[in-house]
Amino acid sequence: MGINFYLSYQWLHWTRPSGPPSSLPNGIERTFIKTAGGDIELLSAKPSEPISKTPIVFAHGGMGSAWVWIPYMKYLQERGITSYAVSTRGHGESWHPSFFRMMYATTKRMLGDDLVAGIKAVERMEGSEVVLVGHSSGGGLSQFIVNEGDVKVKGLGLLGAVPGTGSYHVYYNWWRFDPWFSLRMIFHGWHSNSPLSHPFLTRQAFFSPEYPDTKLLEFQRHLNRYESFLWPLGMLLPFIDAKKLVSNIAGWGKGDRILIMAGTGDKMMTKEVQQKSAATYREAVEEMAVEKRIDASLEKVQLLGGDGERDNSGKGVRLAFVPGAGHHVQNDVQWKIGAQKLLEFLRQL
């Protein structure tokens, strides 16, 4: 049997996207936020009869955009919850830096500023602080801006998120399931999209084996044309102080305030990665409660019911898993299970 390391150039691009914005499903609206660099895309899904005054803001990960959150946004909209999703620069329909500027001169601080601009716009429109939910590197970015005090939030959801304690082991996990990663990058001239340059590679990294080919090709077409290298590099080492981050989340003592969730089929943000993140934040909450810096309940960690029977809650942090789902829990075939677990977290805030 021959070796196939899926060397393809079909899905690699070196220029900004052109043409009209992509279409959106009914119930999802697109607006733009003015920033010094350019316009930032903001998607919204507003129910006709909202049951909560607290909006949700979603943050995408690397190679993604606000588009990846549409399934969750529609799900929450149908249940009376308002949500928004931001596309940072170089993603979705937001303004795009040039190839080299995006790859080599766009930092996590710059992308964080775009996310903050989106959150501030939502706060002005809705008159409320938000619950911030970030996926993958967007989960890392969410931790970063809360840690820095750029925003204060009512809750923080981290879905398959880069851990704030550093991500070296995450990229080691990627290399383990794709050992041709480095060699392929050389053939691709170190293009940022090399690891996802073929649908097989995208499925392998992001989805379960059951994910339909038609959906996979649609997802592939929505991937970024190129991505920032400095964003993930800026998260290789620890980049948050857990106690400082906890201090910028409001409402302690009234249910869990942090949700950590991932698919059991996630090859990068594995069960061990999620458990370590939960332990890090639970330790921070406990120390701050003992120091009387927050009024948090310190009940023992207890198992929760639901799909998978692996979820637990305690010390203000909820740890949940979506059985069978890959890294993109919000898009994989099991997405409704994750959406329901997010909804349960939101309802208990």
UniProtKB/TrEMBL annotation:
Domain AB hydrolase-1, first and last residues per copy: 56-286
InterPro entries xref list: AB_hydrolase_1, AB_hydrolase_fold
BP terms from Gene Ontology: cardiolipin acyl-chain remodeling; lipid homeostasis; phosphatidic acid biosynthetic process
Superkingdom field: Eukaryota
Any single Gene Ontology cellular-component annotation: mitochondrial inner membrane
GO molecular function terms attached to this record: lysophosphatidic acid acyltransferase activity; phospholipase A2 activity
Family per similarity comment: Belongs to the peptidase S33 family. ABHD4/ABHD5 subfamily.
Name of protein: AB hydrolase-1 domain-containing protein
Native source organism of the sequence: Pestalotiopsis fici (strain W106-1 / CGMCC3.15140)
